[in-house]
Write a structure and sequence with these properties.
Blueprint lengths: L3 H8 L6 H5 L18 E12 L2 E9 L10 E2 L2 E3 L7 H13 L6 E5 L3 E3 L4 E9 L13 E8 H4 L5 E8 L2 E10 L2 E3 L1 H21 L5
Parallel strand pairs: 1-7
Antiparallel strand pairs: 1-2, 1-4, 2-3, 2-8, 5-7, 6-7, 9-10, 10-11
């Protein structure tokens, strides 16, 4: 089991090469140095953790097929920053409340590296938060088709990382994804998960004693 102290240390790592960590889950068609534009929109998402069965779990959602952007895909709760939001933390917490009905007190552990998503022209700010107990969901059925969770043990399981070729605009593109509970988690969500995963690996490897 990954301890909460390990998660705190992972999120707060200084001088961590986030791009190298994210790159593990870059689709083959993604530019290596994708950058935002002056017109790019901004969003906040919540990587929400909670303890259960001697492990920490991450909350993920499957978007409804009726949404205009990224319909049917796996994502974190989150959305576009509202002008009234004082910070991206406020955006992420507000969206978790609106999408999942999880409005209780969430402890903010820190943030991961912002990621730019070229197809939607969004710069996304991932916030890492913690609940003391498993949440009770009241999902917004217009946005959320399914809610499920992935343990940190599963996140660190190399066997659950898979690749496949898909056709994009007439080209065959290699797509890496996490195979979690019958879902294929790819794209921006996988890239953010990859940074979180590699941060955890860095901390856990430093704590593992080396036998002479």
């Amino acid at each position: 089991m990954t301890a909460l102290d390990d998660v705190r240390a992972a999120v707060q790592l200084a001088n961590f090469d986030a791009l190298a960590a994210q790159r593990h889950m870059f689709p083959g068609s993604r530019p290596m140095e994708a950058t935002k534009t002056e017109r790019s929109r901004q969003a906040g998402v919540l990587i929400l953790l909670y303890p259960e069965a001697n492990d920490l779990h991450i909350v993920l959602t499957r978007r409804t097929e009726t949404l205009r952007g990224h319909s049917g895909q796996i994502s974190f709760p989150g959305g576009r920053r509202d002008p009234s939001d004082e910070s991206f933390v406020m955006t992420a917490l507000r969206e978790a409340c609106e999408e999942l009905g999880v409005c209780e007190s969430i402890s903010v552990l820190g943030a991961l590296t912002p990621i730019y998503i070229p197809p939607s022209d969004f710069e996304v700010f991932p916030i890492v938060g913690l609940l003391d107990a498993p949440p009770t969901y009241q999902p917004n059925l217009d946005e959320v088709a399914e809610v499920f969770a992935v343990s940190l043990t599963e996140l660190l399981d190399e066997r659950l990382k898979v690749e496949e070729y898909r056709d994009f605009q007439g080209k065959s593109v290699l797509i890496p994804y996490y195979a979690f509970h019958g879902h294929k988690v790819w794209g921006a969500t996988a890239i953010m998960l990859s940074e979180f995963e590699q941060r955890l690996r860095f901390v856990l490897q430093k704590e593992t004693p080396i036998n002479p």
